[in-house]
Amino acid sequence: MITGAKHAIAFSSGTAALHGAAAAASFGPGDQVLVPAVTFVASANCALYVGAEPRLVDIDPVTRNIDGERAAAIAEEDPRVKGAVAVSFAGLPVDLTPLREARGGELILIEDASHALGGTRNGQKVGGPGGADMTVFSLHPVKAMTTGEGGIVTTEDDALADRLRTFRTHGVVRDAATGAGGPWEYDMRSLGYNYRVTDFQAALGLSQLTRLDGWIESRDAIAERYRELLDGDTRIELPPRAEPGSLHGNHIFAIRITGGATVRLAVFEALQEAGIGLQVHYIPIYRFSYYRERFGLTPEEFPESERYYSGALTLPLFPALTEPDIERVVRELDLALAGAGEPDPR
Ligand SMILES: *Cc1c(COP(=O)(O)O)cnc(C)c1O
User: How many C-beta atoms lie closer than 10 Å to residue 306's C-beta?
Assistant: First the structure.
């Protein structure tokens, strides 16, 4: 296993893997789980699947990952907080230290590393020893490698691994007598699901694995090229680099348009017009009506997430992107910014 983890349990999707991790962590009714406000909804939904409450935390303006100090402070003052789903946004390995040290180390930490497969943190593989209690990867087609649909949970903990495997297969275990009196015996001791992967997916995953390192290298080179070409342009803010000794997964290259929402909209439309594939990662979770209405959340509670989101723009980044492609994106971006009008007053 490329992460060096003791256990790697495959699931039918990253979302199923997150559900399994939340269940294995024993999160449940009355518990709160800290989740960054800017991530894909599945990072937070997994807490709801097991009856717990995702407690959204503002992001750090530099790393764009969960604000670790703020998250630790919430955990210190609120005993309902049982753990966290810390996301390595864009592929930048999240700093787990503040959460690990909070409340005497009793929080259960899940890293959503769907963007960070192939990355390293302080010289250690994301998902390997020294990371969160459980690390979740998505193998959806847009991710660094794919199994069509799929996910993985890695862990060093034998008991968590057992729970994850049982949860994946209906809660059924074969190791114990049930009194049924025969070799066909199996027991169901907890509620599980059918979240297994197929042999076809596993075969595709094995062939993809042989190419992963090369793809991560290409992604890193493309991100570096964008940085070189865009460096010094005050109309945008570049995404943070990984710390020395760490390797960024470079799942996405998300810049921030410093002029704000009006400029971002104009730039988005102009680039779309020029045929460049763009996205915005992500609409913050508190903006979705389900979360807003259910938990009474307001954007004012998340100033850094709002600030980031108002200018967020994801440029194309995939291993097949060529040097002329990159130069064209940068040229069109420059033109779009020049034609986008005045920055929002702040
Ligand atoms: C892709 C993704 C997921 C969900 O994975 P699926 O395999 O699509 O279910 C969860 N969290 C993050 C951060 C993701 O990017």
Answer: 19
